[in-house]
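Exercise 3.2. Students should predict the tertiary structure of the chain below and write it as structure tokens, then compare their answer with the key that follows.

Predict this chain's 3D structure.
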Amino acid sequence: MNPANAAHAVDQAALARLRAHRPEAVAEAAARRVRRPL
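Answer key:
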């Protein structure tokens, strides 16, 4: 498997776990991904 795909799969699993515990954390993660601070 391509490392980028593996990282994406891990990210999806982490998001699924987060969503189960803290739905608001998912929105924060999405906002951080969009802003991508330098």
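Discussion points: The chain has one domain: 3-35. The longest helix spans residues 3-21.
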